[in-house]
Amino acid sequence: MNKAENPALDALLARIDRQRVPKHVAIIMDGNGRWAQSKGEERIVGHSNGVRSVREALTGATEVGVQYLTLYAFSTENWNRPRAEVDALMDLLVRTMASELEELMANGVRLNAIGDLESLPKSCHDTLMESMRATAGNTRITLTLALSYSSRWELLRMVKRIAADVRDGRTSVQEIDEAMVDRHLTTYGMPEPELLIRTSGEQRISNFLLWQIAYAELHFSPVLWPDFDKATLFNAILDFQNRERRFGLISEQVNP
Ligand code: FPP
After folding, report:
1. How far is CA 4 from CA 8, 60, 64, 227, in A?
2. Is the pTM of this model over 0.85?
3. Block means of pLDDT (10 residues each) for the chain, length 256 residues?
4. Ligand 1 near 141 CB (within 6 A)
5. Count of domains in the chain?
6. Buried residues in 92-113 as b, exposed as e (16+ CB within 10 A)
7. Among this protein's residues, is 10 annotated catalytic?
């Protein structure tokens, strides 16, 4: 459906203040399994239908001027799911990255990934690297896939790297500060997410970007991920724009 045929979406879009769009939106995509099971289908059918929602999130984010979109696609804990589901998900990721490359190029999307990428199957790892190389020059929006990612994995890696730097004399305990921690995280160079969305009605963070979301606004949507669309995203952004972000200050200080 093109824009002219969807006045309800246009009306939502018109309410968004383009000067206050979050630079970085992170999403915990949840509910694929439940969506499929409610239709009497295998869980993987939910994941396949979730690809359309990824497209909706990406095009919606690009349309309103979000510069970074980060999606929790596969957690460290997801490796413990039944082997058939893990294999099917990896296969889906490879096929999607390959089939969407042209679209990513046409829309100025730079593909990025965070997580223990070395633990991915070779075909997934190679396709990912190839797509990241191909899109490296794009500047409209950065799409980051969190793959084999968990925040505790990332924080442990950061602690070990800083400890090794102290041990080997490259830095000292006194020099450790927030900026140094940031430099050792997989998200280094990105602004912190200002808005974190989780779908499916669950109200948990599930080991996602724990350091980075210190001041993020949290938006929990009851929508199951395969039903997520631009309207869900725009409503989350409108909710974000109605919040007063105080960063520890009082209301009169942020609104003098
Ligand atoms: C959570 O639903 C979703 C996932 C673990 C996988 C997300 C993957 C996709 C949407 C596939 C395509 C992704 C990209 C980036 C191309 P769940 O299985 O935990 O659902 P449940 O809580 O209902 O069981």
Report:
1. 10, 15, 17, 22
2. yes
3. 76 97 98 98 97 98 98 97 96 96 98 98 97 98 98 98 98 98 98 98 98 98 98 98 87 86
4. no
5. 1
6. bbbebbeebbeebeebebbbbb
7. no
Alpha helices in the chain (DSSP H): 7-15, 32-38, 43-64, 83-106, 122-135, 151-167, 178-183, 230-241, 251-254
Q: What pLDDT is recorded for position 86?
A: 97
Cα 122 to middle of ligand 1, angstroms: 21
User: Whole-angstrom Cα distance, residue 113 to residue 135?
Assistant: 12
Instruction: Please check whether residue 76 lies inside any domain of the structure.
Output: yes
Q: Which residue among the candidates 10, 32, 49, 78 is catalytic per the annotation?
A: 78
32 lines ligand 1 (CB under 6 A): yes
Residue 32 is part of which domain span? 21-148+193-243
* 30 in catalytic set: yes
| Span from the CA of 15 to the centroid of ligand 1 (angstroms) | 30
Give yes or no for a contact between 86 and 43, defined as CB atoms under 8 angstroms apart: no
CATH number reported for the structural domain that contains residue 98 in this entry: 3.40.1180.10
In a domain, 166, yes or no: no
Residue with CA closest to ligand 1 atom 15: 73
In the block, which residue shows the tokens 């633990």?
119
Distances (CA, A) of 189 to 47, 142, 143, 238: 30, 11, 14, 26
Which residues make beta-bridge pairs with 114? 146
Q: Relative to the CA of 36, which ligand 1 atom is closest?
A: 23
Q: Is residue 123 part of a domain?
A: yes
From the alpha carbon of 71, which atom of ligand 1 is closest? 15
Q: Whose CA is nearest to atom 10 of ligand 1?
A: 50
Residue 116 inside a domain? The answer is: yes
